[in-house]
Amino acid sequence: MYMKNHWYVAAWSDELGSEPLALTMLDEDVLLYRKRDGTPVALENRCAHRRVPLSKGRIVGDEIQCGYHGLVYDSAGACVKVPGQARAPRGTRVKSYPVIERHAFVYVWMGDPEDADEASIIDFPRLDHPEWGVTKLHLHIEANYLLLIDNLLDLSHVAYLHDTTIGNAPVAEDAEVIHERHGDTVRVTREMVDVPAARTYAEFGSHPGNFDRWQLAEWRPPAYFLINNGSEGTGARKPGRYRVFDQGEWGFQVYHGITPETRRSTHQFWAIAYELSAVPKESRPEFHRQCHQVIREDVAIYEAQQRSLDSDPEGATPENVNERVRIRFDEGLLQAREIIARMSKDEAAEKKGEPISG
Amino acid sequence: MYMKNHWYVAAWSDELGSEPLALTMLDEDVLLYRKRDGTPVALENRCAHRRVPLSKGRIVGDEIQCGYHGLVYDSAGACVKVPGQARAPRGTRVKSYPVIERHAFVYVWMGDPEDADEASIIDFPRLDHPEWGVTKLHLHIEANYLLLIDNLLDLSHVAYLHDTTIGNAPVAEDAEVIHERHGDTVRVTREMVDVPAARTYAEFGSHPGNFDRWQLAEWRPPAYFLINNGSEGTGARKPGRYRVFDQGEWGFQVYHGITPETRRSTHQFWAIAYELSAVPKESRPEFHRQCHQVIREDVAIYEAQQRSLDSDPEGATPENVNERVRIRFDEGLLQAREIIARMSKDEAAEKKGEPISG
Amino acid sequence: MYMKNHWYVAAWSDELGSEPLALTMLDEDVLLYRKRDGTPVALENRCAHRRVPLSKGRIVGDEIQCGYHGLVYDSAGACVKVPGQARAPRGTRVKSYPVIERHAFVYVWMGDPEDADEASIIDFPRLDHPEWGVTKLHLHIEANYLLLIDNLLDLSHVAYLHDTTIGNAPVAEDAEVIHERHGDTVRVTREMVDVPAARTYAEFGSHPGNFDRWQLAEWRPPAYFLINNGSEGTGARKPGRYRVFDQGEWGFQVYHGITPETRRSTHQFWAIAYELSAVPKESRPEFHRQCHQVIREDVAIYEAQQRSLDSDPEGATPENVNERVRIRFDEGLLQAREIIARMSKDEAAEKKGEPISG
After folding, report:
1. Do C160 and A85 touch (CB under 8 A)?
2. Phi/psi zone of residue A77: left (φ > 0), alpha (ψ -120 to 50 degrees), beta?
3. Beta bridge partners of C196
């Protein structure tokens, strides 16, 4: 069901301190902690002996001790001590996961450890860049992660769902929409020329009246998004030349690391990043508030949609909901769904030793 | 499982204002809103596109716009606009329900729209009559609707469950009980002669000491009740002459519109109506309080009974609980169960094109 | 699934007063009340008529009257009155359970009433002895009862789980552990010689520095524990001579009556008993607080373990969790599991009329 051979975000760096941290990822219970040198460790969060969560225990040096009967595991998952006996029964261990920390994210590899490839981690340097401001959340969503991907690959919804902050009707009705696919990356660009600024742009941006505005949403498997929101004076340049990291005169970037928890719940690591010079210090509280309002509105929709699908009399599910009515703006998300289907199939085939489609 | 070819109460008229209203009826998610002229509209509460509840959207003129991607549906359920494209994909629509508003109730027809017959709506003129006072609730009950019907067709329970307000022992022990059936209407009349007044009657009625009292409970399919509670001085008339709309010297009427939500939950639209002259203005707060206490005691029993049936080791369920011990006072509710069984069977047969029993 | 032919604790004596008391035991809904002479009664908690819990009704003399339609049952479960008719339908009754009150516990026999044997009740005289102080709780645990038995037959966990009160490392690491079996009784004795006193012992006991300490945990089927915690000056006597009721210079006893509620929940009747002279009056609030902290830590572990087992990817369950990694300290609890398995098998065989293993 899940694409396992990928890095998934397990935590923001600053969520992981001196105490063990527990979360469920792709239906697996994972324990995170830091060694004395700060390196993160990821282990199965069930003691081999009685299945109590190791996260209820304590970190001892670079090792973790179960809080029930005191069994100690090293950072590779091997049981190195059983109180009251000379050594642990042979082979007593918990599963260990490859883990990497980069640019504010702690990533865990959920597939075969031998396939873990550090080079496949996406670079998000602006999440911890000194000249960029960031507001961020670790959200727990009661919805399948596919519904989040759908949401972010059709930003026409900004016109309706976020109409008191970053959206107004032109975002849906007057946008030129370009769908691109580069390998397994899907990019949807929405360009609006000479349109009135929605509230957030009018309050914080460079043009309170009409302007040109663009949104570039780039999805990379399994579930990463970088969304670039930019704007500038009308006529300043021709359409079609916008790029992911270019905000023009004023804008901000949105980052999403999306990690399935279960089939019906998701961890969403969400951040807004902006050049410090773009939002003066005194404006930041209100700018952050508007950004948080936007993501809370999205969360409410993800969860309402999931609840609706839970009891759909026509059998719609998170997996097939897109196979019904198709509209023009669905194109990007249908491509992502196609890529996910192909990658999932390949992963299943690889497990069985069959040739893969690629 | 449900009898669908009927009008069911979806809301009190004053529950439906300028915002969309959502509820589940007979396992279907229904959206209600009013057009500009006040006429109520009832549609399936799932956008055809992504299954998000349309009740999260907004009313635009006489139409409803989805709050996610802005699709617009007219009051007959047809999708008339998809933002960003010239027209909606052919056949995009949501289910529409016949709906009628009358005497404080908004009714929705849950069966085949072609069978919707306005003439079959029951008349409850006292729910909005200028000379009658009303206190009412829309209750959400965690119990199967059949348990409510059982409750109301054996009012001997008033003696025990409501013994600090409208009940005392004679209601169960000294009543003459008459069970009548008129077509598919079941009426149970309980007459008590020369009995002491229960608290509510003693405090608000015409006879603080002994009096004659009667309860007439009339059930009409699928799930409507009109209960007449009347009283007068002992010896004023002979038994057997009481009628549904006659309260004698003092009394009140109780109305129930009962709408299954799911197999295990129910909407109960409950009202007490009384002649304004029967309860002086200054007495109404306490009279209403006692009425509300009665219905809350009933709710507690419905839900306790349902929880007990949820885990019944002998396999009793809301559907078969009456097939066990039978007592004399069960007669009315057993007739109602028989009518429900026959009507359900006929409806199922009609769907298959078979001849119906009637 | 359950061993039914046993006495189980249904309540502390002082939980059962002048009102009906309801609880679920071994998946059966039980009603308790006292007759006028104080004798406890235990009946099935579902009225034969409509399955409403009889505990919602009222005690009338030595009988119980249903709060819905007023049916009256005597203390043997026979329906003796149906309002509105001369007599109850023949055979109308609810199940009745043998019940005995002794030493602060109200016991109910959950098996065949003919097998109920008062002599098999265990004697716990210190629970209501005038020279002993007691602090006690009726805990509702969201975990299978077997997890509680495991906990109490391996007290090495005291070293880790209770390390801010009664535990420190020597309890696990420096203890001599003796496993004994006497018929179907399992006793695990842990003796520590010349070890530092854990906090509770240092604060309330006779030796703030090093001392000898012992724990004797005795389990008797189906689910009773008497645990003796004792201590005295190092060198005062030889190991191997400790007995269940001997606390040496300072100590206390712990009692557990464990009653399965469902497969996933348990009633735990827990008590600490101590000689009044061992804990001066002014010290008791803090001594009780530390004892309560210990049991709350245990409850948190039972429930965390159950939740972990609920979703165990390797299929571990409360029933089989011990069949995985085995450590030296598991010996006592593995014996208890073996006895439970054999007794359950015998009980099942007896039901079918087969020869039993004993």
Report:
1. no
2. left
3. C210
Phi, psi of B96 (to 5 degrees): -115, 145
From C106's Cα to the closest Cα of chain B, the distance in A is 24
Closest by Cα among B82, B151, B139 to B302: B151
> Phi and psi at residue A245, in whole multiples of 5°?
-100, 20
DSSP state of C323: G
CA terminus-to-terminus distance, chain A: 19
Interface residue B67 vs chain A (CB under 8 A): yes
* Closest partner CB to C325 (pick from A48, A65, A67): A48
Query: Under CATH, domain B125-342 is a member of which superfamily?
Result: Naphthalene 1,2-dioxygenase Alpha Subunit; Chain A, domain 1 (3.90.380.10)
Q: Which residues of C touch A57 (CB under 8 A)?
A: 160
Give dist(CA C225, CA C127) in Å, integer.
13
- The amino acid occupying position B165 is T
- Please indicate whether, in this complex, the C-beta atoms of A66 and C160 are within 8 angstroms of each other: yes
Query: Chain C contact for B173, CB < 8 A?
Result: yes
Q: What is the DSSP string of A74-138?
A: -TTSBEEE-TTSSSPPTT-B--EE-EEEETTEEEEE-S-GGG--GGGSPP-GGGG-TTEEEEEEE
Tell me the chain B residues in contact with residue A332 when contact means C-beta distances shorter than 8 Å.
Answer: none
Beta-carbon separation of B324 and C49 below 8 A: yes
Q: How far is CA B259 from CA B23, B310, C50, in A?
A: 11, 20, 22
pLDDT higher than 80, residue A238: no
What tens digit of pLDDT does each residue of B165-206 get? Answer: 999 999 999 999 999 999 999 999 999 999 999 999 999 998
To the nearest whole Å, the CA of B46 is away from the closest chain C CA by: 32
**Do residue B57 and residue A160 have CB atoms under 8 angstroms apart?**
yes
List, as ranges, residues 216-255 from B with C-beta within 8 Å of C: none
Question: Domain B7-120 is of which CATH architecture?
Answer: 3-layer Sandwich (2.102)
For residues C136 and C123, what is the distance between their CA atoms, to the nearest angstrom? 17
Token pair recorded at residue C212: 């000898």
Within 10 Å of residue B102's Cβ, how many Cβ atoms? 17
Contact across the interface for A84 and C328, Cβ inside 8 Å: yes
Query: What tens digit of pLDDT does each residue of A185-234 get?
Result: 999 999 999 999 999 999 999 888 899 999 999 999 999 999 999 999 98
Going C339 to C340 to C341 to C342, the CA torsion angle's sign is: positive
Question: Which H or E run contains A230?
Answer: strand A224-232
What is the tally of helices (H) and strands (E) in chain A? 6, 18
Which candidate from C48, C52, C70 shows the least CB-CB separation from B172? Answer: C70
> What band does C356 get if pLDDT is binned at 50, 70 and 90?
low
Give me the interface pTM, i.e. the ipTM: 0.93
| Phi, psi (deg, nearest 5) at residue C109 | -90, 120
What is residue C315's three-state secondary structure? coil
B100 membership: H or E segment, kind and range: strand B99-102
Diameter over CA atoms, chain B: 78
| Both tokens assigned to B258 | 């009962």
- Residues spanned by CATH 2.102.10.10 within chain B? 7-120
At B358 the pLDDT is 44
Distance CA B80, CA B92 (A): 9
Joined tokens for residue B288? 């209403």
pLDDT exceeds cutoff 60 at C53: yes
- How far does C26 lie from chain A, in Å, by closest CA? 24
| Reported pTM | 0.94
Give first-to-last CA distance, chain B, whole Å: 19
Query: Which residues of chain A neighbour B48 with C-beta distances below 8 Å?
Result: 324-325
Q: In whole angstroms, give the CA distance from residue A128 to residue A112.
A: 29
CATH 3.90.380.10 domain locations along chain B: 125-342
Residue A206 near residue A232 (C-beta atoms within 8 A):
yes
What is the C-alpha separation between C73 and C75, in angstroms, rounded? 7
Shortest CB distance from B308 goes to which of C53, C70, C85? Answer: C53
